[in-house]
Amino acid sequence: xxxxxxxxxxxxxxxxxxxxxxxxxxxxxxxxxxxxxxxxxxxxxxxxxxxxxxxxxxxxxxxxxxxxxxxxxxxxxxxxxxxxxxxxxxxxxxxxxxxxxxxxxxxxxxxxxxxxxxxxxxxxxxxxxxxxxxxxxxxxxxxxxxxxxxxxxxxxxxxxxxxxxxxxxxxxxxxxxxxxxxxxxxxxxxxxxxxxxxxxxxxxxxxxxxxxxxxxxxxxxxxxxxxxxxxxxxxxxxxxxxxxxxxxxxxxxxxxxxxxxxxxxxxxxxxxxxxxxxxxxxxxxx
Length: 286
Fold this sequence. Notes:
The protein is of the alpha+beta class and 286 residues long. The protein folds into two domains: 5-170, no CATH class; 175-282, Homeodomain-like (Arc Repressor Mutant, subunit A, Orthogonal Bundle), CATH 1.10.10.60. It is 42% helix and 18% strand. The protein has eleven helices and nine strands. The strands form two sheets. Strands 1-2-3-8-5-6-9 form a seven-stranded antiparallel sheet. A two-stranded antiparallel ribbon has the order 4-7. A hairpin with a 5-residue loop joins strand 5 and strand 6. Helix 8 crosses helix 11.
């Protein structure tokens, strides 16, 4: 049996990583996997991921994700809203009711990616999950249609690498997009990194330049992006470290106090941290 490059780059999405998936005990049921993109497209693509499911006839699961600030393009099959979909940056947790059978392959873009691959503005799909049609964006529709016909997730990833590398060769990321990539990497890697002047000094640019880079690529500001990443980490810690109290976690995540952390999490996830922790832990095996 031969192994494709896509197979070699694939790994499961596991419950104790910072994926933003709420109730991560369900990940195994969805056969959730990452596929690493080829380095040739790393300025445009953050990750490929795919999931599949086969639920009982009367079963319905409402899945929520405190997703990374990113535009995501998907090919979808089965009980899904549309065969090709674009999901914008959501202020609250992304939510979908899952039923029947289905499968999704996703291209999660880096901040610089949308302007390279298409003509959509981030604001046009903010807080939305919509069908990707030729009328919405012909270039993105052509790209995702070409992936949809590939046989399996590994083949889709390989085709995406090939097609996107060709696009990047003709249409390079903007300097503002590349700065937004670097800023997001910094905030993901250093959870205690402050925004404002400290972040601007680190990148030797003005605060206005940072605000403009994020606004152009994600439709959000740096403080919002930083808070979103910290809430992703909180979702992970609530399950991975069940004995840590909220005051301790608030301090670790650079919150002034646990009440601010609780309010932010409830606003985004629709549930308090304590209630989420109890429910998420109850779903774990054993």
